[in-house]
């Protein structure tokens, strides 16, 4: 992880340590938004990882989706299925 990505991960780690136990564990997506943020920052760096995290948090609302939503590039089968819905798992 780049130094800037480490810096961007600090608020996420603080949230997981301080607020997440109080808020509860009722995330709509798997992995949770905080786990998604840390994985996106590690895989894609600070700028793109922050952008992916912001998009993910923006989708987290009562009218949004739910279910399995991995970081792009971390699950090749899922990425392939999103690009071509007719392609099943190999």
UniProtKB/TrEMBL annotation:
The keyword Transmembrane helix does not apply. GO terms for cellular component: plasma membrane. Pfam families: YidD. It is a peripheral membrane protein. Its main location: membrane. Keywords: Cell membrane, Membrane. Residues 69-90 are annotated as: Disordered. It is found in: Cell membrane. This is Putative membrane protein insertion efficiency factor. Could be involved in insertion of integral membrane proteins into the membrane. Belongs to the UPF0161 family. The lineage of its organism: Bacteria, Pseudomonadati, Pseudomonadota, Alphaproteobacteria, Rhodobacterales. It comes from the Bacteria.
């Amino acid at each position: 992880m780049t130094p800037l990505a480490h810096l961007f991960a600090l608020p996420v780690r603080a949230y997981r340590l301080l607020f997440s136990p109080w808020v509860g564990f009722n995330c709509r997506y798997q992995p949770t938004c905080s786990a998604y943020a840390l994985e996106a920052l590690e895989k894609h760096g600070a700028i793109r990882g922050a952008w992916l995290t912001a998009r993910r948090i923006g989708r987290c609302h009562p009218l949004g989706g739910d279910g399995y939503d991995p970081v792009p590039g971390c699950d090749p089968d899922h990425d392939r299925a999103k690009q071509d819905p007719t392609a099943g798992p190999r």
